[in-house]
Design goal:
mainly alpha; Four Helix Bundle (Hemerythrin (Met), subunit A); 6 helices
Length: 184
Amino acid sequence: MKKCLIELGQEHGGIQLMLRILEAIAKQIEAGQPAPEADLDAIAEFLSVFADRCHHGKEEDFLFPALQNLDIPAGKETIKVLLSEHQKGRGLIGAMKGAIAGLEKGEENAKKRIVEAGRGYIDLLTRHIEKENQFFRAADSQLSEAEDGRLVEAFEKLERERIGPGRHEEFHALLDWLSRTYLK
């Protein structure tokens, strides 16, 4: 598999781990246990910055345009669906952030809204990642080595400019810590 697709696949793994953590917190909230606001804020930040701004940014700004005119079965239609799902995900992250802010203000239904938005996001991204992984397998043979190299460089530049140096590693440290805390 091409390096750019391997990189995105590895990022999918990190996002899937965060979805498992989010599900564990949703269950904790439903059981009437406290959910630390700092952890919820950190999860929302991860989803907003790592999953959306960085990962989806790589796809939207570079990968999808590169794949748009290649001979991939249903390629253009698949890209349209994936872009639409990115937008839906942004809406759910916004709803989750709003619910977390409501929790911090003591709003009565905030916990319920966190669970609903969180589960909506988990559902969406679980299916979305499966679609992307299939699409990436189909795209792999169509991408040239030169295009792969160009995409890897573009991804590195995007990461430096959009999330900053060292941030990727910080997000992986956050994943490790939250995993130890919530996925026992």
